[in-house]
Amino acid sequence: MELKKVELMAPAGSFESLRAAIQAGADSVYFGVEQLNMRVRSSSSLIINDIPEIVKICRESDVKCYLTLNTVIYNHDMHIMKAIVDTAKKSGVNAVIASDPSVLRYARMVDMPVHISTQANVSNIQSVDFFSDYADVIVLARELSLKQVEFITREIKRKSITGVSGKLMRIEIFAHGALCMAISGKCYLSLHSDFASANRGACIQNCRHSYLVADKETGVEYEIDNEYIMSAKDLCTIDFLDQLIDSGISVIKIEGRGRSADYVYTTTKCYREAVNSYYNGNYNPELIKAWKTRLATVYNRGFWDGYYLGRKMGEWSNEYGSKATKRKIYIGKGLNYFKNAAAAEFLVEAQTLSKGDEIIITGPVTGLIQTIVDEIRVGNISKDMVKKGEIFSIPLNTKIQASDRLYKLVDV
Fold first, then answer.
1. Host H or E run for residue 54
2. Domains in the chain: ranges and CATH
3. What is the maximum span of the chain, computed from C-alpha positions, in angstroms?
4. How many CA atoms within 13 Å lie on the side-chain side of 172?
5. pLDDT tens readout for residues 215-254
């Protein structure tokens, strides 16, 4: 009997990221539409009418797709919630990811499969049993240790806890990406300070800022400069991915629907290779080191192992923003692709581009292309560099689209 591999799920906050995830080897993707997903402020605006096209793209590559409906739901949201579930059902979305009972109840009424979101904060086997009446998959709370995760997966088998399909409940956990100071993402700081509810996907991330503390008696202010005391480092589990898989989980999930296509591609590609190496029997420290180096090239706040290995407190960032070891510089946009010559034409709109530069090209149809510039031509003339205003072409075996964006990658 062939061993069933763990499912690798990647974020898709835009069509660029969707295609990048597929190109990098994701088994499934998750996305949100309209105002009822937890990344409505940070991700590109996917709308309900995009659902059929997203499903079509996924089906062409034999990739599953899941739609997030994991915000707090109010009475005035019922119409749009039902419309989203109905469209997801009609279009063939594999499941909706939700925690609000109104969504669970309506999804069951229309026979739409459900995954229980991490916002439900499932932390014990009794809660798994409760939600088994509504779902086949549960995303566990992010604060659990691997020992706690393993206990839950073992008890599911021992007690034969089955979901709505009649099959054993499956467990999903986050493997990489941003972690929040709040319990499983439930936070009210942004709501209190700016009337922007994180639980409605509108978080302004003021926990990521630096802060001053004041002596109430003297008025003297002190800057907390040793670390950003509410801004957690990003989760990274690639160096103990074998322990994650051995815990009995069925799905590992990469966070990042607000992140760019190059982030999605790089993280998904590294974890794809890591999962494959686990099953091939060659998962080793040398490969892990190489993966972590590649993961560090894209957006991150520094890495730590989350709570899986028994930590009680988080690790906090010591500076604002990303610690990525590479930075994107916008160069220009795509104009044409010449199939017979296997060459792509671009217009330089900013900066310069030289032979030997590392580049990425992104677009809603293209997804992501990453390569090194081996040759630059302006007309029939070979050049070492092009600057703003020039139209040039480079050899490229992959077709680009007009208005695809070209970036140069530089070391930080």
1. helix 51-60
2. 7-180+231-304 (3.20.20.70), 326-411 (2.40.30.10)
3. 76
4. 25
5. 777 877 666 555 555 667 899 999 999 999 999 999 999 9
